């Protein structure tokens, strides 16, 4: 069937106006924004052995293995720790592993493993600060913390049971790396041990002895009801088999008696939902104190070894007062924000303005099924129009991905309101394996323009979240 074409006459002025409108529309996009009370649970896109502590001042204090020092982060919110205030504390020595920050008897203490460049000489050490804020004041080295045996020791933590303090760590039985056992000793003060060490666990089950050397390490304690749950890491930390195990004791028991401790025969938390090797964790509370959260590291992808990232998720309690973690949360399903944490403003990548070669494309794992990418040439950009109620510092959290050939990090260049650009770093886990990139930015009251341009390598953006800084 033939259809007659219909023509509509428009005045020249009208045609010109439509053309101008189209040009303006292509050059600038009105960006949708929505309030969200959820997040995708990467907390840091790089790092291992996360330790987080919620102090009575309402702030979270965080540290992780950085290798050559102890670095502290301070944040009012759990999900913004990566962009928190930072203090670097020099320790001397080499191979600084798994630091922890504790507040005991009115002072701050950092416990960390350190050697002289030879792993055989790893021992636990402690520093003290009496400042109200651990990011302020002076840190004083208190010395090595050890029992009389003075054997290889890492991953030390403190258990406070009533008025008594105990030190728990991972160590060698002798002077050769055959296995790592868990030991406990009584403390006379936060920097001194006054008893012999007592072995309370060693690798025995198949899931603890599937790699050599055999490993029990990363002990962390949490008390619920009358039960002390000592959750530890087992198997090789360099493998996908790394997992968490559990030993328990009654709070009223003699904790220096090995018979007081009971080990569970099955792992408590292991690989799942496409996440591998969860381990070396810590515990904390939501901002309002109503929820319990576990923070842990995982391999960035299967077979990544010691290339790890930090995640967290809430957990509940079993009837016997032991923690129930389930499995690692699905990385492509959002979790509700920790209870008491403020919502953030979300801008989806596909709603941004694009220039050069950049454009939006489909994303199987993206929050809205789309992503912003192809920022492949110097003139390419992805631009967000962000509104701030008042001028001040804000935290930018972007769900990002990098699959640049060669496996290296990449960075985009981020500018705010046409200011100087800064590196916006993205770890390499492969395309569609989303992570988290963050920045502290200064915004004006009203509309602000955030522009991402080509840097080194390639990167994609699922969305950005904006929250006021601490």
From TrEMBL:
Pfam families: Glyco_hydro_43 (PF04616)
Taxonomic superkingdom: Bacteria
Feature type site, description Important for catalytic activity, responsible for pKa modulation of the active site Glu and correct orientation of both the proton donor and substrate: 155
A GO biological process held by the record: carbohydrate metabolic process
Residues that span the membrane, as ranges: 7-27
PANTHER family linked to this entry: GLYCOSYL HYDROLASE, HYDROLASE, FAMILY 43, PUTATIVE (AFU_ORTHOLOGUE AFUA_3G01660)-RELATED
Name of the protein this chain belongs to: Beta-xylosidase, GH43 family
Source species of the chain: Paenibacillus typhae
Lineage, highest ranks first: Bacteria, Bacillati, Bacillota, Bacilli, Bacillales
């Amino acid at each position: 069937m033939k259809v007659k074409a219909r023509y509509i006459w428009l005045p020249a002025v009208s045609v010109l106006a439509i053309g101008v409108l189209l040009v303006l529309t292509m050059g600038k996009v009105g960006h949708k924004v929505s309030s969200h009370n959820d997040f995708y649970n990467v907390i840091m896109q790089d790092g291992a052995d996360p330790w987080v502590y919620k102090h009575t001042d309402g702030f979270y204090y965080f540290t992780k293995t950085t290798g050559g020092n102890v670095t502290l982060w301070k944040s009012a919110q759990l999900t913004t720790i990566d962009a928190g205030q930072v203090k670097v504390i020099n320790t001397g020595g080499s191979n600084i592993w798994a630091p922890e920050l504790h507040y005991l008897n009115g002072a701050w203490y950092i416990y960390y493993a350190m050697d002289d460049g030879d792993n055989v000489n790893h021992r636990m050490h402690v520093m003290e600060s009496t400042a109200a804020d651990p990011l302020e004041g002076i840190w004083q080295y208190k010395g090595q913390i050890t029992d009389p045996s003075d054997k290889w020791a890492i991953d030390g933590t403190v258990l406070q049971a009533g008025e008594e303090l105990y030190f728990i760590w991972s160590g060698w039985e002798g002077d050769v790396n055959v296995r790592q056992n868990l030991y406990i000793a009584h403390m006379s003060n936060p920097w001194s041990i006054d008893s012999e060490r007592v072995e309370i666990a060693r690798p025995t089950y198949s899931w603890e002895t599937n790699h050599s050397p055999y490993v029990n390490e990363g002990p962390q304690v949490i008390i619920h009801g009358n039960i002390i749950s000592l959750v530890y890491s087992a198997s090789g930390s360099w493998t996908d088999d790394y997992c968490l195990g559990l030993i328990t004791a009654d709070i009223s028991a003699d904790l220096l008696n090995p018979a007081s401790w009971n080990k569970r025969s099955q792992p408590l938390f292991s690989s799942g939902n496409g996440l591998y090797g969860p381990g070396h964790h810590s515990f904390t509370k939501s901002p309002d104190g109503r929820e319990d959260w576990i923070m842990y590291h995982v391999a960035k992808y299967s077979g990544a070894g010691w290339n790890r990232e930090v995640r967290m998720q809430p957990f509940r309690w079993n009837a016997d007062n032991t923690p129930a973690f389930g499995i690692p949360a699905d990385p492509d399903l959002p979790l509700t924000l920790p209870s008491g944490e403020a919502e953030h403003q979300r801008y989806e990548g596909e709603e941004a303005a694009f220039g050069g070669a950049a454009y939006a494309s489909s994303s199987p794992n993206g929050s809205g099924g789309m992503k912003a990418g192809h920022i492949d040439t110097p003139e390419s950009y992805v631009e967000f129009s962000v509104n701030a109620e008042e001028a001040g510092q804000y935290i930018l959290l972007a769900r990002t991905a990098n699959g640049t050939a060669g496996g290296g990090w990449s960075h985009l260049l981020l500018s705010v309101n046409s200011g100087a650009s800064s590196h916006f770093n993205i770890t390499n886990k492969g395309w569609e394996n989303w992570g988290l990139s963050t920045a502290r930015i200064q915004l004006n009251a009203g509309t602000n323009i955030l522009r991402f341009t080509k840097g080194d390598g390639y990167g994609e953006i699922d969305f950005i979240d904006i929250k006021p800084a601490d």
